[in-house]
Specification:
- There is one protein chain.
- About 35% of the residues lie in helices and about 15% in strands.
- The protein has a 6-stranded mixed β-sheet, with helices on one face. A 5-stranded antiparallel β-sheet has the order 10-9-21-20-19, with helices on both faces. A two-stranded antiparallel sheet has the order 3-4.
- By secondary structure, it is an alpha+beta fold.
- The radius of gyration is 35 Å and the shape is elongated.
- Helix 4 packs across helix 6.
- Among the domains are: about 270 residues, Beta-lactamase (3-Layer(aba) Sandwich), CATH 3.40.710; about 200 residues, Orthogonal Bundle (Penicillin binding protein transpeptidase fold).
- The longest helix is centred in the first third of the chain and has 22 residues.
Length: about 725
């Protein structure tokens, strides 16, 4: 009677508990989909070349989860058969649970030490989906909940659907989840390529992947047991079993010798080769681009979508040839010890980022995550001058043949001491054309132009080009603000697109695992310059590479139209080259992360390569990148002049017509000898608002602007009252 009472009490307790546990079960609707974390794949601009993967992370420690879901058709039948035989040989006969195994597990849990599981494949799917955070807890409550959900899962899904979810959910050691990640990590194969021996090895890892991989002999011994069981259950023939046993299995990390019968000879040897465990981002071709893609996806869709579910297919603008060229240019590029660099190239017509390298690549070293091409904000220095010159041409009616004096000048600043910039060599070259001043990067003429058209006008144009954080001070003419290499290359690229700036972008389209388009790029376009101003600046930048003595001369590439501008900041803390060729705008930056000055020489080198400046090292790296990027493309491409452009041969110094001079582009009516004004090269030309008699601003309507020549000392008379 006492025994019966005890039994009934236990039964009553279990029944009550079962009702309570049933109320606490997770939402069964998710069983229809069983969504799980999956690795997102990132493709190059051709739409088919895989350039990297973004691995989901989970848990408080942000551990990465390497998983790319596969269908059963993408896994070899031998591997599937091995997994079923090893993990649940009655899988196709039961309804979600194995009664003998369950009874034994319950007995050990209640009356014994525990430690034995009776989980079927169906139960493991439930456990790995709903209870992964407490998967190691062996409680009766958890097991009963698993059982209830397993029965429901068998009711809703076919055996094939359950098996597919299982092979994609199961943990295979390290951060490997799913059979595709496991096949790649242990055998460097796709799942469809696995043979019976390899599939069985992976199956025997499942109960305790890290421990079983480290004990090859014991794992090999357990494989023999499963093979014999498969033969006894008529799953395979004895001949197939022996052929699998004789296969010389060599999982990554092990070197094993076998005799003709498949027995291990001697002791298996651990090799230095490690498993291909994945960080949250992996890409041999373009790691910095992949980190940028990851961050963009998080901003667009949130961490829960990118890392919690994943499985996205991301199509980028990266060009494989261009990216390989950028990688080599960074690897081979000479920089001072400890210095960093950034390379970025884009198509100015579309805004597509073709290549980017965010650090100095070094053999045998993995690059850090910080992407200087996208995130390092550094002063552009003199490489910003083309924007100042373009503003003067567009708003001030200047031409590249216009003569301005490079001379010591104190520029009045209201309420402050005069601004007295210097040139990089502390000398002055006197009167020369604007083109020549740009060729050799003289500072005083650039500041004079900014003063003439107003710093506000320069800043307004710069903001339209994507620059940020500029203030309307005269020092803006010398690049005294911060910009990223990508922003800089994109802004200069507007000259190569007829004056239209196209917002740079790295991602063209994002799809989910089923091919549904989640997001598609629609880059913003802004007309900043007229076609004529843009072409005039292209012509001046061409001079910056091809005119005699121009600082960018080392960027020349035989048979290619190349234009560009060097840049150096105060104390040589940053050195740049930003350049153009048809279809490509690119920037190279070199500097230290702590912003210390760049040394003038590299110890241990001789000749011109030992001397460090913006006319050398960034130019060489730029040329190396561009030359390799353009290989296989037609040579001889040039920018065609738009309507309204004429040409004259002009003396670079005097600005006079000269048959032996440099061929320069002009907006029709502004060529040499056509101006109604006789400009004094000593004075400057300023825009005056006729309505107020003071300096015009960027918002002054063009019809109220008139141009006057004044001495620099008179500029204060025309300043607007604050």
């Amino acid at each position: 009677m006492v025994v019966l009472t005890a039994v009934l009490s236990v039964a009553s307790l279990l029944t009550a508990s079962a009702f309570r546990w049933a109320q606490e079960l997770p939402d069964l609707a998710s069983l229809d989909l069983l969504e799980f974390t999956a690795t997102s794949q990132v493709f190059a601009r051709d739409g088919s070349t895989l350039i990297g993967e973004i691995v989901p992370v989970m848990g408080e420690d942000r551990a990465s989860i390497d998983r790319i879901p596969v269908s059963l058709e993408e896994v070899s039948p031998a591997a599937l058969m091995a997994i079923v035989a090893s993990e649940d040989d009655r899988f196709f006969a039961h309804f979600g649970f194995d009664i003998p195994g369950l009874l034994m597990a319950t007995y050990l849990e209640l009356l014994g030490p525990g430690g034995r599981g009776g989980s079927t494949i169906t139960v493991q799917v439930v456990k790995n989906h709903f209870f992964r955070d407490i998967a190691d807890e062996r409680t009766l409550e958890r097991k009963m909940k698993e059982l209830m959900l397993a029965i429901e899962l068998e009711r809703r899904l076919t055996k094939a659907e359950i098996l597919q979810r299982y092979i994609n959910l199961v943990f295979w050691g390290g951060n490997l989840y799913g059979i595709r990640a496991a096949a790649r990590a242990y055998f460097d194969k796709d799942p469809i390529e696995l043979n019976l021996a390899e599939g069985l090895y992976l199956a025997r890892l499942i109960p305790s992947p890290n421990r079983n991989h480290n004990d090859f002999v014991a794992t090999r011994r357990s494989m023999r047991v499963v093979l014999d069981n498969m033969v006894s259950r008529d799953m395979i023939s004895r001949e197939m079993a022996e052929r699998a046993w004789r296969y010389p299995l060599q999982p990554r990390g092990w070197s094993v010798q076998y005799d003709a019968e498949g027995n291990i000879v001697g002791e298996p040897v651990r090799t230095a080769e490690t498993l291909n465990l994945s960080p949250s981002v992996r890409s041999e071709l373009a790691p910095h681009a992949l980190w940028t893609v990851r961050n963009s996806l998080i901003a667009q869709f949130g961490e829960s979508r990118v890392f919690g579910a994943g499985g996205l297919r991301v199509y980028t603008t990266i060009d494989v040839q261009a990216q390989e060229a950028a990688n080599l240019a960074s690897l081979e590029g000479l920089v001072p010890d400890g210095a960093q660099l950034a390379i970025v190239g884009l198509n100015p017509q579309t805004g597509e980022i073709l290549a980017m390298v965010g650090s100095k690549l070094r053999p045998g070293e993995l690059p850090g995550e910080f992407n200087r091409a996208m995130s390092a904000r550094r002063q552009p220095g003199s490489s910003f001058k083309p924007i100042v010159y373009a503003t003067a041409i567009e708003q001030g009616g200047y031409t590249q043949a216009r003569v301005i004096a490079d001379e010591s000048t104190a520029f009045p600043v209201r309420g402050q001491p005069p601004y007295t910039p210097e040139n990089h060599d502390r000398t002055f070259q006197g009167r020369q054309t604007l083109r020549q001043h740009l060729n050799v990067s003289r500072n005083i003429p650039a500041v004079k132009l900014a003063e003439a058209v107003t710093p506000e006008a320069v800043v307004a144009r710069a903001r339209e080009l994507g620059y940020q954080g500029l203030q309307p001070f005269l020092s803006v003419a010398l690049g005294a603000f911060e910009v990223t290499p990508l922003q800089h290359a994109s802004a200069i690229g507007a000259f190569a697109n007829g004056g239209v700036h196209v917002e740079p972008h790295l991602i063209t389209r994002v799809e989910d695992a089923d091919g549904n388009v989640l997001w598609e790029a629609v880059p913003r376009e802004t007309r900043v310059w007229t076609e004529q101003t843009a072409y005039t600046m292209l012509d001046m930048l061409y001079g910056g590479v091809n005119d005699p003595g121009a600082f960018g001369g080392r960027a020349r590439i035989d048979g290619r139209w190349i234009g560009g501008k060097t840049g150096t900041t105060n104390d040589s803390r940053d050195i740049w080259f930003v350049g153009l060729t048809p279809g490509l705008a690119a920037a190279v930056w070199i500097g230290y992360d702590d912003n210390r000055p760049i040394p003038s020489r590299i110890p241990g080198l001789e000749g011109e390569r030992a001397t460090v400046n913006s006319a050398r090292h960034p130019v060489w790296i730029w040329r190396n990148f561009v030359e390799r990027t353009l290989r296989g493309t037609p040579a001889g491409r040039r920018f065609e002049p738009p309507p309204g452009i004429t040409f004259n041969s002009v003396n670079l110094i005097s600005g006079a017509l000269d048959p032996g001079g440099v061929r320069m582009a002009f907006v029709g009516g502004s060529e040499v000898g056509s101006s109604p004004l006789s400009f004094d090269p000593i004075n400057i030309t300023v825009a005056i608002d006729r309505r107020t008699g003071v300096r015009a601003t960027a918002t002054t309507p063009r019809e109220f602007i008139e141009w006057s020549q004044i001495s620099p000392s008179e500029i204060g008379r025309f300043a607007a009252t604050p």
